[in-house]
Design goal:
The protein is mainly alpha-helical. The chain has 17 helices and four strands. The strands form two sheets. A two-stranded antiparallel ribbon has the order 1-3. Strands 2-4 form a two-stranded antiparallel sheet. It is globular and about 60 Å long. The two termini are about 30 Å apart.
């Protein structure tokens, strides 16, 4: 959990460059005010911090999705025997520790300083956004790792840190989010002349959208506790109703894509996903073969299939089995990579496909996602009419989301946009897929449509859903855990990721031992939020 030397110097430099906020002064000379290698001696204007903090948050998720994406079977390895496919982990490695780095190092003291400077200048919108980013970081971190260091996280002079329980972290997320709302609603001070729009890569300084994001986070925080006696479906529904009102409110981080340093992690220029293949599970959800998302007339094609996924050379859509890879198919039948290129040597200028583009925005929260949360909460409450309404809105919203990525191919005579519209109309008219009677709506339909809507970005929320239902194939129809599981798992699936190796296992092992973190099967220990 140690703060890396020179990190703040690098982070502030990146912020200034990303936002384009200074011209002739070099980054080195501008930051020569810093004599402390572990932090800045002088705090700079709030807008200089935001770009790297927001980008770091998105990249933390994207980096670690190379591992978590395999756990939840958004995708799996091209080759057989991948340990992450088997719910394993790589010992003595920082692999899967990027989110930890983002929350503690990239955000870390920089976010604290941004909030302090904004309070000093009475820029309450910056203060609100700062508290909200902190809360969002803690929410993701605890859902990913379980126990984490919160109360002692940024205390000066500490060389060891105690872990807070997940229950305590959930309460802190609520406290910080409510504090964020209070500040975002303030209109006094310097809010009228704020420069939030100069550094905000998510909402461009739109305070109203940040308020909606805050209520979305409260909904997620409460809904994760669906296995607890204190869980309140009504509270979740009320939060969602105050949250994102349409796809126009979706929260996502902007990337320019011109050079590697400002390119989306999933872009072909970065080349981070060349050996990844779509899973059999997602293919089954979109090709109509999944029993819970199946049209009995056998005439409905999900319009999202060709937009989101890549076909094999023969034009058919297939996915890989975890731990098996594409070796189960003959060469002509093997699914292509996520950019749909003939080989895994991918040119940096390869055209964008769905979320896998150099300059594609990376989503953090969407309207469709929240509608499915509302649908599940209403279903649990027993209000199936409300559940069906939210479910239908969620499917429609994700159809709109995907439609943005439909591109007419000049090599084919078809009008791809028109075909998408026709298939969408047929899909939404199918009573098997979109029930006309609320009594026919099932929990499985809600959760599987949510899975589709979060494919390729909402890994943590998807994993939280899988763990809340303990990987149930009754809820997640067609989902099968890898066989065999990783040897150290002792037959159990993963429920958490181990903390960052070069932080905790090298420097904080005594505290880690207290929570069982030195045990070889620690990553299979169930988290507090999913326990009944």
């Amino acid at each position: 959990m140690r703060i890396q030397e020179r990190s703040i110097r690098k982070i502030l430099c990146a912020s200034l460059l990303t936002a384009g906020l200074f011209a002739s002064t070099s980054c080195e000379s501008y930051l020569d005010v810093n004599t402390n290698p572990n932090g800045p001696d002088q705090v700079v204007a709030p807008q200089y911090y935001l770009p790297s903090i927001q980008t770091g948050l998105a990249l933390g998720i994207e980096f670690d999705s190379r591992y978590l994406g395999k756990y939840v079977q958004n995708w799996n390895a091209r080759d057989a025997g991948d340990l992450w496919d088997q719910h394993g982990f790589l010992a003595s490695s920082d692999a899967s520790g990027e989110l930890w780095k983002s929350v503690y190092y990239i955000m870390g003291a920089n976010l604290t300083d941004m909030i302090s400077k904004a309070e000093e200048e009475q820029k309450w919108d910056f203060v609100g956004v700062g508290y909200l980013l902190r809360a969002f970081g803690w929410q993701m971190l605890t859902d990913y790792h379980g126990e984490a260091i919160v109360s002692q996280a940024f205390e000066p002079g500490r060389t060891s840190f105690d872990y807070d329980t997940q229950e305590e972290i959930y309460a802190e997320v609520r406290r910080l989010t409510e504090l964020a709302i209070t500040n975002l609603e303030r209109t006094d001070g310097a809010v009228a002349t704020s420069t939030l729009n100069r550094g905000d890569l998510i909402y461009g300084g739109d305070r109203a959208k940040w308020l909606k994001f805050a209520y979305g986070l409260l909904a997620i925080n409460e809904h994760h506790l669906s296995n607890k006696g204190s869980y309140s479906p009504d509270k979740v529904i009320a939060y969602v109703d105050k949250a994102l009102a349409s796809n126009a409110d979706d929260a996502s981080v902007r990337f320019e894509g011109s050079i590697s340093d400002d390119t989306n992690f999933y872009g072909p220029r970065r080349g981070n996903l060349n050996t990844f293949r779509q899973s059999k599970f997602i293919v089954g959800l979109l090709d109509g073969t999944n029993a819970s998302l199946h049209d009995n007339a056998l005439s409905v094609v999900d319009p999202r299939l060709p937009v989101m996924l890549a076909p094999a050379p023969d034009g058919k859509y297939r996915g890989v089995t975890p731990g098996v890879g594409f070796t189960e198919y003959e060469a002509a039948l093997r699914p292509r990579n996520l950019w749909n290129t003939p080989t895994d040597v991918v040119a940096a200028t390869t055209p964008n496909k769905y979320l896998f583009g150099n300059n594609e925005r990376f989503p953090l929260m969407t309207y469709a996602q929240l509608q499915f949360i509302k649908a599940e909460a209403a279903f649990i409450k027993g209000d199936k009419s409300l559940a069906l309404d939210a479910y239908t809105k969620g499917v429609n919203a994700h159809m709109d989301f995907v439609k943005k990525y439909v591109i007419n191919d000049p090599a084919t005579p078809e009008d791809e946009v028109a075909v998408f519209g026709q298939r969408r109309q047929a899909y939404m008219a199918s009573a098997d897929l979109i029930p006309t009677d609320a009594a026919n709506l099932t929990l499985s339909k809600i959760m599987l449509q949510k899975y589709i809507a979060q494919w390729g970005w909402g890994f943590l929320e998807t994993w939280t859903d899988l763990r809340r239902y303990h990987y149930s194939s009754d809820v997640f129809t067609g989902f099968q855990l890898p066989d065999p599981l990783y040897g150290l798992n002792q037959g159990k699936p993963a429920y958490r990721f181990r903390p960052r190796y070069n932080s905790e296992y090298m420097w904080n092992a005594a505290a880690l031992e207290k929570i069982g973190g030195l045990n070889p099967d620690f990553h299979t220990y169930e988290l507090w939020f999913s326990k009944k």
